[in-house]
Design brief:
mainly alpha
């Protein structure tokens, strides 16, 4: 099933305060309509609160009881490589074995980390206009993050008539689901940098940039696992986009792995096995040329995406739970949670529709004791729709 990103676009420009620390007390800008479809009170979350001055507490998800989070029989499992049903391959060895010695994607994840430090993602820092200027330089460097957001397509949707990076604005508007990078994420980042440099609600702008870049990392990881059919080195880019080049058991993590690992080491482990599944497929299929074993690629890519979706859902769940005390945290739910609706509807149409309604209704001045369609229902729905992979 397809869910329309036109709805996401109406609130995406206003998204997303991924960390409560990025919220500002009584910030009038968060209550302005940022486009024709945005609601004028879109800045605050449950309770209408905008006061948020401390870093949110990250509570790791406890491991699932034995037997309740079983892998699929088709899953690649490095720890049990001899018994997982996959033929022996290079991914059986630890750590990850690159296909190409040069992995340009690592520099983009490093740039994300530099931007994160400058803008204070996940901290109480209020970035200065100069911080935004420096971050904008990092973002827009040659062959950097900006160049990839401008071309990023969501491979969950059928290809458009031509590449999104070659489309006019009108064509992008007609293909928003597929053209998620240039049509949805790029406007968020560009507008946030302009306002941040101007000194307008800097913490809010930093939060919008954070949410958009995390979305880009997710879509990019899945995209590279797809395009790796034709370009073997894209497997390396896939691994780099999630891990930043770190081993699965590294003492510290960067990029998207930083967020997932902080919430659930188990989810991180499953994502890493998904990455290795794609690496194993490429080794078994054709290590360097064009791959031909489409069923095995689909099997590996599906394992990876199932785990990635769980990781993203955990981030959204945590922000939804924090939204009562920190209203702008709800902006994360609206952006990242909005991207989960497509898969939610595929898994369970009724619950997916409830999730979509809960996300849309999670704006003041509604009554948040709405039962099955209320904002408080989001964490439970996400837990049911995106269980441990």
């Amino acid at each position: 099933m397809r869910t329309t990103l036109a709805r996401h676009a109406s609130f995406a420009i206003a998204a997303a305060a991924l960390a409560c620390a990025s919220c500002e007390a009584s910030d009038p800008e968060t209550r302005e309509p940022l486009d024709a479809g945005a609601r004028p009170d879109a800045g605050a979350g449950p309770g209408g609160s905008t006061a948020c001055t401390t870093e949110p507490r990250i509570t790791p998800v406890p491991p699932a009881p034995p037997g309740t989070c079983a892998r699929l029989a088709t899953d690649f499992d490095q720890a049990n490589a001899a018994a997982d049903g996959w033929p022996a391959c290079v991914a059986d060895r630890s750590p990850y074995t690159p296909i190409d010695a040069s992995i340009s994607a690592l520099s983009r994840v490093a740039a994300f980390e530099q931007i994160r430090a400058l803008l204070g993602f996940g901290t109480a820092k209020a970035p200065t206009p100069d911080d935004f200027l420096q971050a904008r330089v990092l973002y827009s460097q040659d062959q950097g993050i900006e160049s990839r957001i401008a071309r990023r397509e969501d491979e969950h949707y059928p290809p458009a008539a031509k590449l999104c990076r070659d489309m006019t604005e009108a064509e992008l508007a007609a293909n928003r689901e597929r053209c998620v990078g240039p049509a949805v994420l790029r406007p968020i980042v560009n507008a946030a940098f302009v306002k941040g440099i101007a000194g307008e609600a800097p913490a809010v702008q930093a939060a919008r940039i954070e949410a958009a870049l995390l979305s880009w990392l997710y879509f990019s990881t899945f995209k590279e696992a797809t395009s790796a059919k034709d370009a073997a080195k894209d497997v390396d880019s896939m691994w780099a986009k999630y891990s930043g080049g770190n081993a699965r058991d590294a003492a510290t993590h960067v990029g998207l792995a930083r967020y997932v690992r902080a919430l659930s080491p188990e989810a991180h482990e499953r994502i890493y096995d998904g990455l290795l599944a794609v690496r194993c497929w490429r080794d078994l299929d054709n290590p360097t040329g064009v791959a031909s074993n489409a069923p095995l690629q689909l099997q590996a890519r599906t394992q990876l995406d199932r785990a990635l979706l769980r990781g993203v859902a955990l981030v959204v769940m945590q922000r939804a739970e924090a939204a009562g005390a920190c209203g702008p945290a709800w902006e994360t739910v609206r952006l990242l949670g909005g991207f989960l609706v497509r898969e939610a509807k595929v898994r369970d149409g009724a619950k997916g529709a409830r999730l979509e309604s809960a996300i849309e209704l999670g704006l003041p001045p509604v009554d948040f004791a709405l039962g099955p369609t209320g904002a408080a229902d989001v964490p439970e729905l996400l837990g049911e729709l995106f269980p441990c992979p």
